[in-house]
């Protein structure tokens, strides 16, 4: 066995008491099979249930189990960021707490890592037991994101992945607030490859990503990796004023050279609505960017840790 920790597994959890013991059991089994030193870092993202107590009692019999407790709910993306800040392993694995990501895939990831790849992300070839709305909205989102950014962010890929220490060290230098972690991992680069899997149903409990949070994640993904929404204003503005001009010419022609009295009101009204709606939309997009600039300018810490268990607190540069 080696001296340091070889594998760190990060498990963000928010009200996961219904599944967490089973998750631990399956993960511990897989990690034991690797035969290397490892740590399981559970990040309690301000849960209101007993999942953190469950982890504490598991840690009494398994010293590989570690815990980061946030002072409140900071969100999934921040929770995995904190996990990376504290992880000590040569390879760091991120996995959901609800067993939608099968832990057994970690073996395949490790095999690729040993081949020399530095990021191994798990791409879903199929999703079981999720609503059609979630499937369709997710499929659309990943494709819109792909179209709107120049960075190659793989489609149908969540945060379930393995990263080499080199990648994690670079990730720790990124300070931005509204994070889309999987995009940032693509952004840092290194040699990346995929393993494929079928995403299962949640073992128990319900999704912690209601529509509002899904939209926030989409916005973070698109807005933090692309200026294209801003350019929309330029193109659409040109198109709209171009067609407005043509229409004006037509109206002038009709009044000057024909007898037809143009009724007017409906066309004015519709043009008015289209333009005003459009201006509001563009203002909203601008507002989103400005809000993000504001967030960055405040320079607040990404998260606040109430307590940790079994972790080297000096390791985390950010939490200092
Ligand atoms: N999660 C979290 N903080 C949150 C929301 C979710 O740490 O504010 C965790 C959650 O416990 C789970 C993972 O993030 O381990 C993914 O959440 P979920 O399974 O609810 O999302 P879905 O799979 O439905 O997209
Ligand atoms: Mg899930």
Task: Describe the overall structure.
- The protein is 49% helix and 17% strand.
- With 320 residues, the chain is α/β, with parallel strands linked by helices.
- An eight-stranded mixed beta sheet has the order 7-5-6-4-1-2-3-8, with helices on both faces.
- Helix 9 packs antiparallel against helix 10.
- The model has no long low-confidence stretch (mean pLDDT 86).
- Magnesium ion (MG) binds next to loops.
* Order of SSEs: EHEHEHEHEHEHHEHHHE
Helical amount: 40-55%
Our count of helices gives 10
Straight-line N-to-C gap: 31 Å
Give, in spatial order, the strands making up the sheet with the most strands.
7-5-6-4-1-2-3-8
* Largest β-sheet summary: 8 strands, mixed
Structural class determined from secondary elements: alpha/beta
Total E-strand runs: 8
Strand content: 15-25%
Calculate the mean pLDDT score and round it.
86
Gross morphology is elongated
Radius of gyration: 25 Å
Q: Cofactors and ligands present? A: uridine-5'-diphosphate, magnesium ion
The low-confidence runs, each spanning 5 or more residues with pLDDT under 50, are: none
Pfam family, one: Glycos_transf_2
Domain Glycosyltransferase 2-like: 8-169
Organism: Paenibacillus swuensis
Subcellular location: Cell membrane
């Amino acid at each position: 066995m080696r001296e340091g920790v070889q594998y760190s597994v990060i498990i963000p959890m928010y009200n996961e008491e219904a599944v967490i013991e089973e998750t631990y059991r399956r993960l511990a089994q897989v990690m034991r099979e690797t035969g290397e030193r490892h740590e399981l870092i559970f990040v309690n993202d301000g849960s209101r249930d007993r999942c953190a107590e469950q982890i504490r009692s598991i840690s009494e019999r398994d010293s590989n189990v570690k815990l980061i407790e946030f002072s409140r709910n900071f969100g999934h993306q921040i929770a995995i960021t904190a996990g990376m800040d504290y992880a000590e392993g040569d390879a760091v694995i991120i996995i959901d707490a609800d067993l939608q990501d099968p832990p057994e895939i970690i073996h395949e990831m490790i095999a690729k890592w040993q081949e020399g790849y530095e990021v191994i992300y798990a791409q879903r070839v199929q999703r079981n037991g999720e609503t059609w709305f979630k499937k369709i909205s997710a499929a659309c989102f990943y494709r819109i994101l792909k179209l709107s950014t120049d960075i190659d962010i793989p489609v149908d890929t969540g945060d379930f992945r393995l990263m080499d220490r080199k990648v994690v060290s670079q990730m720790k230098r990124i300070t931005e607030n509204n994070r889309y972690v999987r995009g940032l991992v693509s952004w840092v680069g290194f040699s990346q490859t995929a393993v494929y899997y079928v995403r299962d149903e949640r073992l128990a409990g319900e999704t912690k990503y209601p529509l509002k949070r899904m939209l926030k994640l989409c916005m973070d993904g698109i807005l933090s990796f692309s200026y294209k929404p801003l350019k929309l204003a330029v193109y659409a503005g040109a198109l709209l004023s171009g067609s407005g001009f043509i229409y004006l010419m037509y109206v002038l022609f009709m009044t000057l050279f024909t007898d037809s009295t143009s009724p007017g009101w409906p066309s004015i009204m519709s043009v008015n609505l289209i333009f005003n709606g459009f201006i509001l939309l563009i203002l909203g997009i601008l507002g989103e960017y400005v809000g993000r600039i504001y967030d960055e300018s405040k320079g607040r810490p990404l998260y606040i840790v109430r307590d940790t268990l079994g972790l080297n607190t000096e390791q985390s540069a950010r939490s200092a």
